[in-house]
Amino acid sequence: MFKRIGHKLILTFAGIAAVGLGMIVLFYTDQQQDSLFDQNEKMMNKVTQSVIQGLQTVMLAGYADIAQDFAVNLQNVKGIVDFRILRTDGNEAFLDNKTISNVNQRKDEELFEPREEETVRRILPSDYLELRNAIATREITRIYTSSESGEKLLTFIAPIKNSKECHECHGSKDPVRGVVKITTSLVEVERAVNASRQQAYLLSGPFLLLIIVVTSIMVKRTIVIPITRVTTAMISVSRGDLTLKVPVLGRDEISVMARSFNRMSEKLKSTYEGLEEEHDKLTTLVLSAHDGMIITDRQGRVVLTNPSAAEILKKSADEIFADGFNHLFDDPNIMRRAIEEQGYIEIEHDNRVLQILASTIQNQEKTIIGSAALIRDVTTEKRLQEELQHLAISDSLTGLYNRRYLDTSLANELGRSQRYGHEMSIIMFDVDHFKLFNDEHGHDQGDRVLQFMSRIMKDQIRILDIPCRYGGEEFLIILPETNHASALAIAERLRKGIEEAAVDGLSVTVSIGVASYPDLVVENYQKFIEAADKALYEAKKAGRNCVRSA
């Protein structure tokens, strides 16, 4: 790749050098061309002046009849394409008798013999601009033109001034007696210019070649080779080899780049080693985690899972990858709900209780790049929690609700009845002569009596009723939505059931007190219990094994 860059650089430098040399050659040859044209003009100017002087000399010597021959002979001179002597109106002179007649008339004698044949030859239009300028300014006018064959021509239109020596024959009225038109070829000048241009190009060729050679060597040594080294090192780094270093030679920009690359490579190596260490830790954490972990990419494809997820879901890793994130369970709405709620949700799956925590993963631009889910089997914990909760509110001997749960439940039920004007009752009872029974038959037998009481209670009450052990041999039943008459009926049925039953062949009885709301006006649940307790003691005073109302 960088060889191609080197070629491009060389071609670019060569192109710039070629353009620069070309411009120098063009400037040089244009200057030389202007110089040659200027020299040619000066030379032709002198020639024209000489021709005019020669012509005037011939005319002043009285040899006007050979002026035409003079003009014809000049046309045979090398480089002269056309030579004409014109009158100021643009017609060629010496072809008619107009001038001869004027001179003879002015001299009043036949100085010149008239021509036998007269010809009028129009060379230039009378209003020809350069002709008018030459006559008006009495200065030589030059014109650059091209022939039909493409040959470049230079034409001089030089005025023949009417000097004092000419006044005798031609008068002094016209300041200009005529013009000389000389046309020369510029072929030789152009040939010289082209030869000079070719020579300049020939000389610039070796110089351009030298520039290309030197540039090629410099580009290769200072750019291509150093960049190739850096590139080779970059390719090695991209393939995982972070040990390769780039030689740093000099202090130029590429050396700075090589030095920076080496520093970057060292940092990458350090970072890679740290990432590798963290990756090992993360892999160990993921693989050894008891919770199931599942991660997806931005398209929702599962890209990472762990053995715990397969164990919890009862699926293989391949099945998890194939089913996808939304079909980890039979109901796809489960994972959608987990993501929406942004917190743990609990579901029952395959006779187990699972907790799911799921969320989307976003980058710094808040673009979703994937999803993650943590699945935990909390079946054992839930059972333990339920057992602990049951133990916290239950009496360990009888399995009835304990005193703490009694206080809370009775306060809530009484408060609800007071708010909505509902009826409710409580039944409080204890075992008659339980202390004597304990002393006579032993504490174990006493415990079995209390357990027997709890079974009778559960059999005699409704589902919504709350049976509790108040303490020792005392029991209390909360009867929501129950009036006093119904409570008395339940109490009597309970008393009778206990009296008719036997515990290990032993008979027991109970004394019962009943209190009802709103028949009683009580401030709180403690007063409610006190009222039932008083009714209980009334039953004991009445001989036990009976029911009394508060």
Spell out the key features of this protein.
single chain; alpha+beta; Beta-Lactamase; 4 domains; 5-stranded antiparallel β-sheet; 16 helices; 14 strands; 18% strand
Percentage of β-strand residues: 15-25%
What series of H and E elements makes up the topology? Answer: HHEHHEEHEHHEEHHHEEEHHEHHEEHEHE
Helix segment tally: 16
Per CATH, the architecture of the largest domain is 2-Layer Sandwich
The total beta strand count reads 14
Q: Which fold name is given in CATH as the topology of the largest domain?
A: Beta-Lactamase
Q: Tell me, what is the CATH class of the largest domain? A: Alpha Beta
- The H-level CATH homologous superfamily of the largest domain, spelled out, is PAS domain
Q: What distance separates the N and C termini? A: 105 Å
The biggest sheet, with number of strands, parallel, antiparallel or mixed sense and barrel status, is: 5 strands, antiparallel
Query: What gross morphology would you assign?
Result: rod-shaped
Rg, nearest Å: 66 Å
User: What is the helix content?
Assistant: 40-55%
Strand sequence of the main sheet, in spatial order?
Answer: 6-5-9-8-7
Mean pLDDT comes to: 81
Structural class: alpha+beta
- Counting structural domains, the number is 4
Low-confidence stretches: none
